[in-house]
# Entry
Amino acid sequence: MMSPRIQIPVSIGGSRMVLSPKQLLTTILVVFSTLSFIKILLITRSSAGGASSSALLHRSEWESGNGTAAGNDGLAAKEFALLRSIVAARAPCRLLVFGLSPQLLALAAINSGPGAATAFVTDSAEDGDAARRVLAGRGGGSSAAVHRTRYPDAAGEAWALLRRARDAGPACVRATGTVRKSGCRLALTSLPREVLDARWDVVVVDGPSGAGPDEPGRMGAIYTAAALARAGGGEVDVAVHDVNRTVERWYAREYLCEDNLVAAKGRLWHFRVGTGGPRDAFCSTGAVQIL
# Structure
């Protein structure tokens, strides 16, 4: 004997329809599938709109000279004021900046006048392209160039590299001659000759990121800044940002020397490196003790 067929009454738009359980289940599945598709579509559009807004904001920050590039915490107002005063006091001068952000790019405008030259070193293709567009839009004024490089060592390797440099003997002691021919692992010898062979009046270290142990660290940038300053033949102002972080603090003390520290604001240290001091070391004081 066949079981009776079950039918379920359903009211749609005021009309009553009779559906079997199979038909009802199919209808429910279709409704839920449609709702899921609509939800996915809305999320996708929202994400695309957010990415577009982020890109526009990034471009606006570069063009206005405000904000910071990705991976950079930025300079506080008092830190930027100190950095601006360092550059303004030496302008027109030869200015080298490790790092690139809208704030740092503003230094190129401060360093203006006959003979002024500014060079930025970055490991970000996106930031490099954005900076070049801004500089091209400014037209005349100071000569500014953007160089892209790769920083080979992660911040987490800082202590091992410093210990190795201390044991390397003459290769990593106070630089003599051109930095391009340095045998020290810390020297950024892959930089272009127009950076390594030039004499700089002001050097700023605010890059690469160094924000985590796996991020590119500033060990090489600080060492190279110190070596370039020693090879400059005169007083060179060197500013290092983010000295609240261990790597920046270690390496600044090791190669730029506490007796050369002339000013500090927040996380920014200002060193003035001269031609004096021992012939076989960066600093006249002993090596920094790292516990």
Summary: Helices lie at 21-64, 77-90, 102-110, 125-138, 158-167, 193-196, 219-230, 246-255. Residues 68 and 74 are 5 Å apart (CA to CA). The first strand starts at residue 8 and ends at 12.
